[in-house]
Amino acid sequence: MPSAGDAPPILDFSSFYKNDPAAKKKLVEEVRDCCLHNGFFQITGHNVPLELQNKIMNWNKKFFDLELEQKNTVNKDTTNTWNRGYELMKSQILEEGTLPELKEGFYIGDEITKDHPYFVNKKLNSGPNMWPSEEILSNVEGFKSTALDYYGQVVELAKDILKVLALTLDLEESWFDDFSSDAVATMRLLHYPSQPADSPAKLTRGIGAHTDFGCVTILLQGDVAGLQVYDYSTKEWLDVTPTPGAFVVNLGNLMMRWSNDKYISNLHRVINKSGEERYSIPVFFSGNPDYEVKCLPNCIKEGEEPKWPPITVEQAIKNGYADSYGRAEKYKKEAAAKAAGEVLVKPGQQVAVA
Q1: CA-CA distance, 228 to 31, in Å (whole number)?
Q2: Taking Cα atoms as reference points, which of 283, 248, 245, 285 lies closest to residue 268?
Q3: Which of 249, 276, 286, 324 is the most exposed place for a label (fewest CB within 10 A)?
Q4: Segment 201-237, tens digit of pLDDT
């Protein structure tokens, strides 16, 4: 069991691929302990090359070095309806009561065509990727091939992690295979500018305290710190120091729900006070959008009712998006109204006007 006050431990995932039952059993036990403690762990010894990690991180920086007008040519809110492309700074509020978040993003997913069933049926985050033109980003084909290679390898890693998670729950290693088949996963290139020195500390976030919506998240950090994980036992925020080659892995709300709250989807946030630009790349593995998630075997006692009703993957993720983006839109409307001297009145609400 990870000790209270310790950042997520770094586990050697190579044991999963070796013909060494004792080493694999040890890995499963370590992952189980982390899932029960705070739902976070880090892994080395995976199959994603360090060279590829560095290449995609370099492209991350190159993209965000573009002018805002150039990035906006692939703005996800104005060029498409399937959540691909550039996301403006301050588009989300994941922690209620804080300011819009100091991050900008670029969404990438599986490269599918407009005749793909997922696009035709408007499935979760499914459609062609939005790439900048060659005139805007030199060697954009290099960006595209690197991004899709990295995306594909991390999605395969997510499936391997799910095999380990199945073993931690005393299920067959292949238990999550149907869920992983034809899965949707979303990769976000992220850029966090350093927070201004005069920004209110209690309100300003690179990304606010939140839990992830999906099943498993695999995060590649750049070389600037800022990620913090909450430890409920000590009520402290723990810094997750970037480690070259390592991935930070955490469980999302869907896995917590699936396990009947046995496993933890934990609070985490980013506060960048380093004075430097911070970059990271999470891949959110959601699963097959039509798959129905209901209480796993071994996660409920005989005669008990599950804590959560069944839900499809797609609906669970959409609920999470609606909450976080809705808060940001509400804040912006209220700020605009305040600036214009207006009074926002909710339906049925009475206000006194001096």
Answers
A1: 19
A2: 248
A3: 276
A4: 777 899 999 999 999 999 999 999 999 999 988 999 9
End-to-end CA distance of the chain: 59
- Strand segments, DSSP code E, in 36-87 are 40-44, 85-87
Q: What is the rounded distance in angstroms from the CA atom of residue 131 to the CA atom of residue 71?
A: 10
Query: Which two three-digit tokens encode residue 171?
Result: 């299920």
Strand partners, 187: 108, 283
C-alpha dihedral sign at 326, 328, 111, 157? negative
Report angle CA 55, 61, 65 to the nearest 5 degrees. Answer: 145
Length of the chain in residues, anyone?
354
With H, G, I as helix, E, B as strand and everything else as coil, classify residue 30.
helix
What pLDDT is stored for residue 81 in this prediction?
A: 94
Model-level pTM? Answer: 0.90
Distance, in Å, from the CA atom of 236 to the CA atom of 313, rounded to the nearest integer, reads 32
Cα(72)–Cα(66) distance, integer angstroms:
10
